[in-house]
Amino acid sequence: MTSVLPPAADIPSSFGASLKGWWAVGSKESAVSEERLLRRLPFYQAEGAPPPPESYGVVAKSEMVPLDNPKHFLNTLSIKPLKESSKPAPPPVLLHGYGAGLGFFLRNFPALGSWAKQSGTPVYAVDWLGMGRSARPPFRVHAKRHDTAARVAQAEEFFVGSLEQWRIKQGLDKMTLVGHSLGAYLSVAYTLRHPDRVSRLILLSPAGVPDDPNTEVPSREVDSAPSTPPGSSTPSMPRPASTGDIKKLKAEQTVQKKEESRSRRLFTYLWEEGWSPFQIVRSTLFFGPWLVGKYSSRRFSSLTEDETRDMHHYILNITLAKGSGEYCISHILAPGAVARMPLVNRISDIKVPVTFVYGDHDWMDPQGGKDSVEKLHQAGNRHSSMHIIPNAGHHVYLDNSAAVDRLLIEKLNKTIPA
User: Fold this and answer.
1) pTM of the complete model
2) Torsion angle of alpha carbons 374, 163, 272, 396, nearest 10°?
3) Which segments show compositional bias classed as Basic and acidic residues (predicted)?
């Protein structure tokens, strides 16, 4: 008999409710909160539950994939077709952003499940080591503070090395990496180290691309982004990025930077000084659930009320978990939220197709994507491109999931063997 999960608690709006939420967090509750999200997928099979109807053509399961160190593991969701192709495409691997988790891709799993059924190719979503529900080992960088190249290399290897171990454990030859924000940055770093293991890169609002931080506004991460309302039938599809799109977005970022409130300037200052936002939430003790609730209810306005409540519960549990991979931020990003070793200066070595994707209200600077595509073209990589997602901010895959799904399927279909 399939167990019934209790509904998630309401988003706290008072100190008392926040105190109750703080006491409820823990590793067990983290697993419950993730499962509550994943059970929204009709083809998800919880542990001990019967398989979903064969009519869906796929089955999704969660597992902890062990790495070389017996104390290290990566939390993994696999969506596998019941009938796998004799010539499957390199499977897409979804990689979340800073301090997030695979549950953030909830809105994209149905479309990717349909693609898995039709293509006979599995789909994976993975929590980075030290984030989400993966193992939380100590994060250490031993390089001297002034040795930027060594600091960046060691910080990147914490994630890149564990992803490579995961690939080997899964028996995958090549992958299509779909990364968001810091996950996109790390996807590029992985490809630079293991070029023969990647067939395509899809970078959703990538962090660390440009070498000019003047128009990036990290505090906008807490804002509600214009998005397609739930159930909306208004078409709002992706489009190739134009010069006009880039100018408009950069102008909006410039205005937002000038109009930042005092509290948002504090947020930006702490970010630039290398503080982990999760340190701040943990240090507030009982107010943590309330702070996370303010973030989740404002930032994910495109979700339904029930989805927002479940997402809040999920974010709260992975945020209050032991600090680990989050401490990479001061080694990878310099003050100003600009990468210490910007991808725009490294991207030319990438030989596989690269797709840059930005929301039309993004806080990531799209000029970095435009310059990167130009450099890729100059290096002979003519299959790289840049796209704009309407009605979306930094979390493009959630703000306008239909548009991102369409773009993902279009690019994934190009990886299917003829």
Assistant:
1) 0.85
2) 60
3) 245-257
The torsion angles phi and psi of 267, rounded to 5 degrees, stand at -55, -45
- Show Cβ contacts of residue 361 under 8 Å, excluding neighbours closer than 6 positions: 225, 226, 249, 252, 391, 392, 393
* 111, part of any domain: yes
Type of residue at 89: A
Q: Which of 394, 395, 399, 405 is catalytic?
A: 394
- 56-65 — which CB contacts under 8 Å span 24+ positions? 56/113, 56/117, 57/81, 57/82, 57/83, 57/116, 57/117, 58/82, 58/113, 58/116, 58/117, 60/109, 60/113, 62/34, 62/35, 62/38, 64/133, 64/134, 65/166, 65/169, 65/170
Exactly one of 362, 365, 371, 399 is catalytic; which is it?
362
Residue 364 lies in a domain: yes
In a domain, 376, yes or no: yes
Q: Is 181 noted as a catalytic residue in this protein? A: yes
Identify the domain containing residue 370 by its residue range.
40-276+323-413
What's the average model confidence in pLDDT over 210-235? 55
362 is catalytic: yes
The rounded distance, in Å, linking the Cα atoms of 65 and 351 is 29
Given a cut of 70, is residue 299 above it in pLDDT?
A: no
- Percent of the chain surpassing pLDDT 70: 75
State the CATH number of the domain containing residue 84: 3.40.50.1820
Write out the two tokens for 370: 């435009």
In a domain, 20, yes or no: no
Q: Which of 18, 30, 134, 181 is catalytic?
A: 181
